[in-house]
Amino acid sequence: FLSIPRTMFAILVFSFVVYMVPGLWGAPLKAISAFLPPIGTQDFDLNNMASGGGGGHTADPAAASRKHYTYFHSKSTIKGLDPYYDYDEALAAAKEQKKPLLVDFTGWNCVNCRKMEAEVWSSPKVRAMLNNEFILVELYVDDKVLTLPESEHYVSKQTGKKINTVSKRNADFQISKFQSNSQPLYALLDNEGELLVPTGGAVYDIEKYAAFLQSGIDAFKAK
């Protein structure tokens, strides 16, 4: 016979295995989502199938020509979204389409970012808002692969450090403009790059995050 501690441990392990089984078919595992790879790396996303890709959004065929798109998109962005990965390029698109800009400061090693993507951004309501109401730009602050041309290297006025990679430039931009170095950080900007509402961080309540987005939309329309 098994002792009581062993029995309890066996029940716990079995329960955890049963919990993870639906994940084989793309069901969200929200309790451990923060520790899983980015949702964009999953070949099958049940949320995306159920929502039809999020608000009827379809990927822009020209998106592949955007800066850093090929490098970041397939390995990071949740399916159903089609963001930019360069701030200046995204701001120009926001001006052209007359939409507010959502800047997402994120990172490969950001546990809270993965949790936000899996629990909040993947919801049909929020995903539809991101697709239809904003120009989205994701700025990674911890990537070590993409380097800047030597002509674009500079020394940060904030930290005194040499900026020679795309992510170091993104991090320096976050610190200098928003006085923050934590991720995720969400900044809702107008077409001149000015804040519409105070920046926000991780909010795991879908309705509260949707209200944050709506406050930016309302402020943009009021201008």
Automatic annotation (TrEMBL):
An example of a Pfam family matching this protein is Thioredoxin_7
Any one Gene Ontology molecular-function term assigned to this protein's record: protein-disulfide reductase activity
Query: Which Gene Ontology BP terms does the record give?
Result: cell redox homeostasis
Q: Which domain of life is it from?
A: Bacteria
Query: Could you tell me which InterPro entries the record lists for this protein?
Result: Thioredoxin-like_sf
What name goes with this protein?
A: Thioredoxin-like
Q: Which organism is it from?
A: Sphingobacterium nematocida
